[in-house]
Amino acid sequence: MIDKSDNIFDGGRMLPIMEDFYTLQGEGFHMGKAAYFVRIGGCDVGCSWCDTKQSWNADLFPPVSVDDVVARICAAPAKTVVVTGGEPSLYPLAYFTLELKERGIKTMVETSGAYKLTGDWDWICLSPKKNSPPLKDNLKNAHELKVIIQKPEDLLWAEENAAKVNPECLLYLQPEWKISGQIMDTLTSYVMENTQWAVSLQAHKYMKIP
């Protein structure tokens, strides 16, 4: 695990940013809305279906100035940022979110919740993984629970996590992209019977955008 107190992060003023770009949110409740994405490098969760495995090795992404990233975010038309990874909960994010909040930027994060999440977030999208289950506090604070479904048995994992989030948390089942055609009928039937859930699709892949 990465040490959040490591001096190389300078209290969160430096972070290993893999990439940052302006696009549309492709998944979950905010799908289709414009947002500035910041992808932080480094992840030890290791999902087999991950479509950004190049982000796993944090050593490939030397820490850069958060202030420079904040400036680029503020220059974008949409005043919303989505921090993703990699795994954001590995890093000290309080400074980053403070700088964004002071400039009127809405803060969102996508995380497995495997580690203590720092920062001030307007929206927490929690995507729990079996091999690194989310912490209790992250489940309690999630605004959106998005569970990736690769096989029918994964629905049990989804329900286990849904039982632990707050009552206002939105519930989404998302087919793993490579087998979405095979699992979609199962998800459709399940959501029709269990109406507390909705289906999330990776719309950005259909639109061929980042």
Describe the protein's architecture and organization.
- The strands form two sheets. An eight-stranded mixed beta sheet has the order 2-3-5-6-7-8-9-10. Strands 1-4 form a two-stranded antiparallel ribbon.
- The longest helix has 14 residues, at 180-193.
- The chain has helices spanning 66-75, 94-102, 136-141, 154-162, 180-193, 203-207, and strands spanning 14-15, 17-24, 34-40, 64-65, 80-85, 106-111, 123-126, 144-149, 170-175, 197-199.
- The protein has a single domain, classed as Aldolase class I (TIM Barrel, Alpha-Beta Barrel).
- Helix 4 links the parallel strand 8 and strand 9.
- With 210 residues, the protein is α/β, with parallel strands linked by helices.
- It is 25% helix and 24% strand.
- It is globular.
Index terms:
eight-stranded mixed beta sheet; alpha/beta; 25% helix; TIM Barrel; globular; 10 strands; 24% strand; 210 residues
End-to-end span in angstroms?
A: 28 Å
Mean pLDDT, as a whole number? Answer: 93
Helix content: 25-40%
Structural class designation: alpha/beta
**CATH homologous superfamily?**
Aldolase class I
Largest beta-sheet details = 8 strands, mixed
Rg of Cα set: 17 Å
Could you list the spans in which at least 5 consecutive residues all have pLDDT below 50? Answer: none
Per CATH, the class reads: Alpha Beta
Number of domains: 1
How many alpha or pi helices?
6
Strand and helix order: EEEEHEHEEHEHEHEH
CATH architecture: Alpha-Beta Barrel
Identify the strand order in the major beta sheet.
2-3-5-6-7-8-9-10
State the shape. globular
Overall number of strands: 10
